[in-house]
Specification:
globular, alpha+beta, about 210 residues, single chain, eleven-stranded mixed beta sheet
Length: about 210
């Protein structure tokens, strides 16, 4: 199962994703969670994505819709003012699943990082080269319970890549400009921050 998430981008799922947080809000209806969660994907891929979300006031996310394609999406965590949903390719799931399992066992973010690193060095865990993830973030408007606009962040995982091997800078250089985070590490990834855009979702097929 997925723990409730407090994404602290740009670290993404590598560190801060799935950290326990204090939650007081009631989960949104399942169909609403699904409609929001799949919005990072192109429209043609939304209906087939597996979605993790929250039931009632539970503090762990579970599968609220089984999918038929290659993508998994994470619903927004209730109980705070920050809206955040993410979708990633199934090739990243072993890495994500290990983090969820270890945090459910009570390990800290630093411990999870070390366990994942050790597993990759031992060859029992892999991060696929160019495994992709997209996240949308915004501030929830209380009267509507959704954001008016969201920021778009795209990520490509490039394990052990360095600034020298990629030719990329290691700090943000502006909207739409790629840069390498955690250079040389097992979880190195290319970050591409897009401009803000209007948040739109449809409930018609959910």
């Amino acid at each position: 199962m997925l723990q409730r998430r407090s994404f602290a981008l740009p670290a993404l799922v590598c560190t801060a994703v799935f950290l326990p947080v204090a939650l007081t809000g009631q989960a949104k209806p399942i169909e609403h969670q699904i409609a929001e969660a799949v919005t990072p994907l192109p429209e043609a891929q939304r209906d087939g994505a597996t979605v993790y979300g929250f039931r009632d006031d539970a503090d762990l996310a579970v599968v609220i819709r089984e999918g038929t394609n290659d993508f998994l999406c994470l619903a927004d965590t209730p109980g705070d003012e920050t809206f955040q949903v993410s979708c990633y390719h199934k090739s990243l799931e072993p890495f994500m699943a290990m983090g969820r399992r270890l945090r459910a066992e009570g390990l800290s973010a630093a411990q999870v990082m070390e366990r994942r690193k050790a597993a990759m060095e031992a060859g029992t865990l892999t991060i696929p080269m160019n495994g992709a993830m997209t996240t949308l973030r915004g501030t929830i408007r209380p009267d509507a319970m959704h954001p008016d606009t969201v920021s778009v962040l795209s990520v490509l995982y490039v394990p052990y890549a360095t600034a020298e091997s990629t030719g990329l800078p290691t700090r943000p250089m502006g909207v739409g400009q790629p840069w390498l985070m955690q250079s040389g590490m097992h979880r190195a990834h290319i970050m591409i921050g897009g401009p803000k855009k209007a948040f739109e979702m449809t409930m018609s097929r959910h």
